[in-house]
Amino acid sequence: MEGIAKKVIENKKTKVKEVRLIDQNGTQVGIIAYHQALATAEAAGLDLVEVSPTATPPVYKIMDYGRYKYEQTKKQQEAKKRQSSFQVKEIKVRPKTGDHDLGVKLGHVKRFIENRDKVKITVLFRGREIAYKDRGSDILNKIEEATSEFAVVEQRPKFEGRTMIMILAPK
Q1: Would the pTM of this model clear 0.70, i.e. be above it?
Q2: 136: exposed, middle or buried (C-beta count within 10 Å: 0-12, 13-18, 19+)?
Q3: By CB count within 10 A, which of 94, 104, 127, 167 is most buried?
Q4: Which residues contact 136 (CB under 8 A, 6 or more apart)?
């Protein structure tokens, strides 16, 4: 019932003479005339819905189309609720960032990880600081050690232009 199509035949004007009919219980009735299928649906107080227009003959199903659409929207809402979402938060540091400032940044990292967000840690190199790449990797190693109990490194430190990037994810 997932891929039901599509539309209710409202104008009752169709060019097909015969259809393959499925009743409201899901059992195949067989190939019958279109007007007879429409009469069967009206007698049951339900809609005649085109399920597969490309089949020969086309497949129609007797159902309450309004209720079907309602159930589909409910399923989509439930799936959206269960979907886990996260954001990527960014923390920027410099090669000359002090220990106390790094401690403050680590507090932010911990808070982001507790909120189930990923954290992108960026070390920015300006001017001649680019010569001290080892200081940037030392900072990232300190952060990795300090967060090892509640975070896992999703992307190892890598150098891109004048920045060094590492991504942490919740355990």
Answers
A1: no
A2: buried
A3: 167
A4: 95, 123, 125, 157, 164
